[in-house]
Amino acid sequence: MKLASGPTPKTNPSLFGFWVCCALLSLAPLARAQMAVLPETTLQAGMQLIHAELATTPDQRETGLMYRRELSGNHGMLFIFADDQPVCMWMKNTLVPLSVAFLDDQGRITNIADMKPQTLETHCAVQNVRFALEMPLGWFAQRGLKPGFRLRGKPFGTTAAR
Asked: What is the DSSP letter of 138?
């Protein structure tokens, strides 16, 4: 049954293909962030055990926790750098509010910053560091963890309880 009379719109196959490609490419960062399975480690902060994904490559560190809809409990991400260096973090495409602790090579907190979602505001370590640990917003403050506190775990050359 034909509902309208007159010429029917013609579909341009090459234009349709262009829009399909655009749609798929726009989803690529989301798919990459959600499909990446990163190694994990257990860290210890006093009595707290932290289950941290490890971001060790430039691409993993750049993607970080982008596009995640939640980060619960004692789960976070540890960003590992080859050497002590200036480190700044941002929240581009990061949907959940986070706190970041910057850590020296022994796992000692140098400073902590609270970060708002989806901003390009940078949060930097006060000195050169080897690690940055992102956790749910307020996680460090709720546990009384402050600069000078030392975390334990394999990345810092110590052992965390299991």
From this structure: T
Ordered DSSP codes for 50-99? EEEEEE-SHHHHHHTTTT-S---TTEEEEEEEEEEE--EE--TT--S-EE
pTM: 0.78
pLDDT tens, residue by residue, 96-136:
999 999 999 999 999 999 999 999 999 999 999 999 999 99
**In this structure, what are the phi and psi dihedrals at residue 86, rounded to the nearest 5 degrees?**
-65, 135
Residue 33 within a domain: no
Domain around 87: 40-156
**CA 40/CA 144 separation, integer angstroms:** 24
What is the Cβ-side half-sphere exposure of residue 144, based on CA atoms within 13 angstroms? Answer: 3
Position 87 in a domain: yes
CATH number at residue 148: 2.60.120.1140
DSSP state of 156: G
